[in-house]
Amino acid sequence: MSQKKRKPKPKRSGNPGHKRAVVAAPATEVTFDRIGKPEIDRILREQVGMTLALAVERSSVASVQGFVDELEHEDDAVMAVQALEAELGIEAGVDELPELDLEQDLRLLRADIDQQAQISEVDKRLLTITREAMVFLERRAVRAEKELEQAVRKTEKAEQQAARHERRAEERVEEAQELRGKAEAADAEIAELQARLKKAQAKGERLEHELEDVPDAPVGGADAQGTIADLRKQLKQREELLIEAHAEHERLEVSLDVARNEMIRLHREVEGTTADTVAAEEALPEVETVLEAVEVAKKLCKHLVFTERALETAEDSPFWRPDMVLQDLIKLDQVAEAYERPEGIGQPVGQFAQDLGLDWRSGVGEVWYGIHPNDYHFSHDGHTLRVAEHVRVANGSGAQRCARVYCAFHPGGDGDDDLPRGVYVGPVGRKLPDSTTG
């Protein structure tokens, strides 16, 4: 039989001598027989440009498991070819084959065909993984686009609400100015009535003195008595007018105070502050860093639960206004106190937080829980919590002018080992990665 050249056999699998795992992995994870995770990870990166973790995330576990199984079958086919070559005396890496009889050549050819067929099966599995990953990314892009549209609508709604608040504040200012003008007019009227009253009182006293000096006055005395009676009647009428003017002045003063207080409340609502928090903010101690702000808040806040993640992230934050972080944590403690009430808050948590002056944001998008699980999850007392809401402290450009306070609202449980109901503070400081950060 004539000699022929043979092409080197492709081999992508790992060391076939790997031992079987003693403990089986959970059903939801990919199981490995002979080929380990590092080798699978390397092959996926070279063949489809994805790590093993990304392949599992963006494809079904069954597809990845099927790829691993087919790769191990390919490894069996490669080992079969190597064993047959050793049996036939073919040295590894040689280009020329020794003289083989027909049966030996057929066996070698079948082994090569089996190996090529198995390589084809592996390629098909890789193609399935790639297609599923593309579908996953397309769906995620659609979800992200929907979330962006929702965010735009929420932003527009918030801007409309802010515009309404500003208009209400302007209307209150106009009402207060109008009431102030009425109060000034009432003051002028009261001053005029007081002057007229003093003149009437002086005239009455003068006439009474004249009557006392002429006790036996003839007919003219009766006229004087009538004049005095008229003057006293006028005096009484003017006293009543003065009393009414004072009452009207007091009413206008009360209305002015009400309008002024409403105007202040609306202005603070637009600016994100309330009358209760102004005094509290003035009494807060000075802080130099975000970590110091969290440590001070941990001492002052009676209802918030500060996790280790809050301290770790606060230490890493370069935000230039840590006093703003402290102020928002104090307000967030009021939200936590209301959340712990057995009867409930009586309104949405977000509305309650906004009434306190917090720039509240609810929900972060389900997609980011899968893309950045380590960022959007944190632990406390052995329990894993997920970021659901956060406070936008500042929204400037860069970590020095941008700050967030992320938290989780835990409903509590019946078990003794479960966390109690409350608000648990997670990452503080830097903004977590999302569509705006990449």
* Low-pLDDT stretches: 1-7, 13-27
Main sheet properties: 5 strands, mixed
Provide the gyration radius in Å. 43 Å
Q: What is the chain-wise order of helices and strands?
A: HHHHHHHEHHHEHHEEEEE
In which range does the helix fraction lie? Answer: 55-70%
Structure in words:
With 438 residues, the chain is an alpha+beta fold. It has three domains: 37-152; 157-271; 278-429, no CATH class. The protein is built from twelve helices and seven strands. It has helices at residues 37-48, 52-58, 61-88, 102-213, 219-271, 275-283, 290-300, 308-316, 322-339, 349-355, 366-371, 373-376, and strands at 305-306, 360-362, 377-380, 383-386, 389-395, 402-410, 422-429. The strands form two sheets. The protein has a five-stranded mixed β-sheet. Strand 3 and strand 4 (383-386) form a beta hairpin. Helix 7 (290-300) packs antiparallel against helix 8 (308-316) and helix 7 (290-300) packs parallel to helix 9. The longest helix has 112 residues, at 102-213. The relative contact order is 0.06. The model is unreliable at 1-7 and 13-27 (pLDDT under 50).
Short recap of the structure:
With 438 residues, this protein is of the alpha+beta class.
Please write out the topology.
Layout: H1 37-48, H2 52-58, H3 61-88, H4 102-213, H5 219-271, H6 275-283, H7 290-300, E1 305-306, H8 308-316, H9 322-339, H10 349-355, E2 360-362, H11 366-371, H12 373-376, E3 377-380, E4 383-386, E5 389-395, E6 402-410, E7 422-429
Parallel strand pairs: 1-7
Antiparallel strand pairs: 2-5, 3-4, 5-6, 6-7
